[in-house]
């Protein structure tokens, strides 16, 4: 009798593959909406709730802090309740937080709603790579390209719509409408979770887990430092690029356009890097290219910012190519979903912890030196750390071999 594909322990995975494809894409689309739907409205909310720059700074630091915290705790959560149920929790928290924030009557509820939504999105950051590993182990490059590109688009769209929707309707509508998208993402995960194996059984099928072991490996630290230095540089430029432009003689509006360009250029590496990484035995040359791009961009922004601002910012926008590289390597350097979850959590937990320091140190060095030389020297030093870390992260190896 011929073997039926509907039989066997992996039948639910095969049957649910199309549903999982839709679910992963929708989940990725939600992972930044709580961040970029808020920041364009902070001045308006400050006037509404009468808070100043200190509270604006707190709200600005919450995303990286939440991503760091939940990057470290999510692997344990996955082992306790399983991948699919963790994805359900991700979208439940995101939906609840977005609705709480939209209904806020004061700054306290604004903070609570943001914290709840960002908790969900921090968990989601970690759970997506092992979900790709579970359902699409034979299509890691394709699915990584897709979900990272959707994540980038989901970063840009809320920022573009925030002010126009608030002007046309109300800031509550502008903040709350993204709960519709997170609810849409919740539905397929509820269906998948109904048929998912028990967490203990899934972990046993995947092999030994990495509790407390990733931090003992050169691969883990290479991935974490590469991702951390990438995120640190990215958030530093998101925060300070407008001021760099203004102090060079540009208008505030032009500074805003440069940030938009910097963000938009990031879509190109998202489309190209995962496919390249899958085809390269050792993708370290990508990190070497990133180091060179950063050197050119930082030198241009420091010494001749208005000579060719579009060129420097375009080159700088290609610098975070190690972001999609890191997310793709999570699955290329692991054999099992449990290994992928452990590496994803450690990389993003440590990485986003370092990213929290970037904008603060970049600004402090600007005040200390009275210019931007020390600030860009700091970013160049971080790029050097990134290059060394990438040497360890990109070498052909598997995390499970280190356990």
TrEMBL record:
Keywords: Membrane, Transmembrane, Transmembrane helix. Residues 18-398 form the Major facilitator superfamily (MFS) profile domain. It holds the Pfam family MFS_1. It comes from the Bacteria. The chain crosses the membrane at residues 57-74, 86-104, 110-132, 144-165, 171-192, 219-241, 253-277, 284-304, 310-330, 342-365, 371-394. PROSITE patterns: MFS (PS50850). GO terms for molecular function: transmembrane transporter activity. This is MFS transporter. It comes from Stenotrophomonas daejeonensis.
């Amino acid at each position: 009798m011929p073997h039926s594909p509907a039989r066997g322990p992996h039948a639910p995975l095969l049957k649910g593959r199309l549903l999982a494809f839709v679910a992963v894409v929708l989940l990725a689309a939600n992972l930044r909406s709580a961040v970029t739907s808020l920041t364009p409205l902070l001045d308006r909310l400050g006037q509404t709730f009468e808070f100043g720059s200190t509270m604006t700074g707190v709200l600005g630091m919450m995303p990286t802090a939440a991503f760091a915290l939940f990057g470290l705790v999510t692997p344990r959560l996955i082992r306790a309740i399983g991948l699919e149920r963790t994805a359900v929790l991700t979208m439940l928290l995101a939906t609840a937080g977005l609705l709480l924030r939209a209904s806020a009557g004061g700054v306290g509820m604004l903070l609570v709603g943001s914290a709840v939504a960002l908790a969900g999105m921090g968990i989601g950051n970690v759970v997506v790579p092992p979900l790709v590993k579970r359902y699409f182990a034979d299509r890691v490059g394709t699915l990584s390209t897709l979900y990272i590109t959707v994540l980038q688009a989901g970063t840009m769209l809320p920022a573009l719509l925030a002010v126009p929707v608030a002007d046309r309707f109300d800031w509550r509508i502008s903040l709350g409408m993204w709960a519709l998208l997170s609810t849409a993402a919740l539905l397929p995960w509820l269906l998948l979770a109904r048929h998912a194996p028990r967490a203990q059984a899934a972990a046993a099928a995947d092999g030994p887990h990495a509790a407390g072991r990733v931090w003992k490996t050169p691969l883990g630290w290479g991935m974490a430092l590469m991702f951390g230095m990438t995120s640190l540089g990215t958030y530093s430029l998101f925060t300070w690029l407008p001021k760099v432009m203004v102090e060079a003689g540009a208008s505030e509006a032009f500074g805003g356009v440069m940030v938009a360009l910097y963000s938009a250029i990031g879509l190109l590496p998202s489309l190209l890097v995962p496919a390249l990484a899958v085809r390269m035995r050792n993708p370290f040359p990508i990190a070497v290219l990133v180091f060179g791009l950063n050197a050119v961009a930082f030198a241009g922004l420091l010494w001749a910012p208005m000579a060719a601002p579009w060129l420097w910012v375009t080159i700088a926008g290609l610098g975070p190519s190690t972001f999609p590289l890191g997310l793709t390597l999570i699955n290329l350097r692991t054999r099992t979903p449990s290994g992928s979850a452990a590496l994803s959590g450690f990389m993003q937990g440590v990485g986003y912890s370092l990213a929290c320091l970037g904008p603060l140190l970049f600004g402090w060095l600007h005040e200390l030196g009275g210019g931007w030389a020390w600030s860009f020297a700091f970013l160049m030093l971080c790029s050097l750390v990134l290059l060394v870390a990438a040497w360890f992260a990109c070498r052909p190896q598997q995390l499970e071999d280190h356990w």
